[in-house]
Amino acid sequence: MVYQYNETAFKTRLDQEAEFTTRAMGTLLPVDEGPEGRLMDAVRYSALMGGKRVRPYLTLNTAALFNVDPKCALRVAAAIEMVHCYSLVHDDLPAMDDDDLRRGQPTCHIKYDEATAILAGDALLTRAFEVLSEDGTHQDANVRIELVKELSKAAGPFGMVGGQMLDLIAHEHDLDMSEVARLQRMKTGALINIACVSGAILGKAQDSSLHKLHGYAHDLGLAFQIVDDLLDVTGDEEDVGKRIGKDEEQGKATFVSLMGVDHARDQAQLLRDQAIEQLEVFGEKADPLRDMAHFVVNRVS
Amino acid sequence: MVYQYNETAFKTRLDQEAEFTTRAMGTLLPVDEGPEGRLMDAVRYSALMGGKRVRPYLTLNTAALFNVDPKCALRVAAAIEMVHCYSLVHDDLPAMDDDDLRRGQPTCHIKYDEATAILAGDALLTRAFEVLSEDGTHQDANVRIELVKELSKAAGPFGMVGGQMLDLIAHEHDLDMSEVARLQRMKTGALINIACVSGAILGKAQDSSLHKLHGYAHDLGLAFQIVDDLLDVTGDEEDVGKRIGKDEEQGKATFVSLMGVDHARDQAQLLRDQAIEQLEVFGEKADPLRDMAHFVVNRVS
């Protein structure tokens, strides 16, 4: 059967898997009844407030390619999403992007306070590694330690945190296209990459499969960022759930400021097609990943 | 030969091992030549500015009890110290303890800025887990994942980060002795504990040895905190390297405010003796750990 993107069916699936992830995170991030319970309240507020759960979807559906036990995949999906949520909490802080609104809700430091938000981010990051290290994640310690290694590399100073540093000082430099692309690869690409690759690690996949998923993740991540930049220019604030027009206001070089809206849109579509090409070897089982590539480029929020 | 504490010899050893640790951390936290290099500069500033390196000393010398390869022990010591350094960087932030001075030097957010300090802390924490996960830390993946598990538990919301939350809101509650002790166990005890136990994990020690080291770490950590509280009352600002008198100023319940200076001093000495008792089974090889127990109680900084 020829593959066709069905947005309604995809969104139902995305919502359902987001719900699974949120429920798993709720269990892995328990309420704390002690006097310090404010911390876990803030952690849960930040982690469970929703979101599309794109990274968990990628982990769950790459894991399915290799017939990984869904219970294991869900733990890894939850851990990676914890790292994503921690990065949002810290990025939203007054000293960083100073955002009051996230997913249409008050950000963590607005709802609680700055100190609590800093600690909530720290707690989410730390707990992510603990979850990966626990026996339930995979029976083979080699697999678990590989996940820790790849996630810490992706999230660390030469990945996501380095990308956030670069983003903060981007206005001091006149970034060209290759530098904007490098920033994206570090700031958002690295985590999308581990989300895709973690399923293959869990499934002890061959290098050739890993290679294809790296390629898929690379193109998908880039497309995702280009669309993010587009939404900041052309999106609807209510749909997007956060303040828009910030990039231009801050004089930030983005894919859109460097390429223009039309070219950026073309580029995102090209990357979508390239991402999908990488999946050929996996057959129909990869349809959920094909769907995601379409969704990332079509989304309005 | 009967054991005797020789402070001069101990301090030489402590300084030497601190130097080993700092050098290892310097290698594990490389300079970044990219435009985001400011991040690794701040990381290195915070991690390499010195300090007594008590936790690394504990790891190195408990590892020696089990004839662990010193190269492996040094990596673990460095990783645990990265977590300690990250906690200091975040605790010093304006939204938290708002400290300008640390070890007699400007704190990270004073030397750089708040955003960079938040990210530098995040980077140190993440890199610690990466270091543990790398092959050089131990050839057996089971050992590496056990280290990740124990360190993340110690540093997480039910350990160090939870303790910091509790500390921040301590003035809202009238903490009694058992609550102050719980706060200490979480905020500083948990990391001291993993510092001691990590050597045994590396050495695949038996449960009975682990149990003894847990006991040693518990008493040592408590003694350490009591002396910290004492130094905040009776210490010399220049010796201590940070502002003193803060606990009383903030109306914080401490071991000293609850027990009084004399009783607190007696209690620290009792804990020192108890800690040392736990080491009997290890014979002379544990003398460096006996030394540390004496040092912790005698120290003036």
Mean pLDDT level of chain A: 94
What would CATH call the homologous superfamily of chain A? Farnesyl Diphosphate Synthase
Q: Tell me the name of the CATH class of chain A.
A: Mainly Alpha
In CATH, the topology of chain A is named Farnesyl Diphosphate Synthase
Account of the protein in words:
Two copies of one chain form a homodimer. A two-stranded antiparallel sheet of chain A has the order 1-2. Chain A has one domain: Farnesyl Diphosphate Synthase (Orthogonal Bundle). Chain A is mostly helical and 301 residues long. The model of chain A has no long low-confidence stretch (mean pLDDT 94). Chain A contains 15 helices and two strands.
In summary, what is this structure?
Chain A has 301 residues and is mostly helical. The first copy, chain A, is 70% helix and 1% strand. Chain A has a single domain, classed as Farnesyl Diphosphate Synthase, CATH 1.10.600.
Characteristics of this structure?
301 residues; Farnesyl Diphosphate Synthase; mainly alpha; two-stranded antiparallel sheet; globular; homodimer
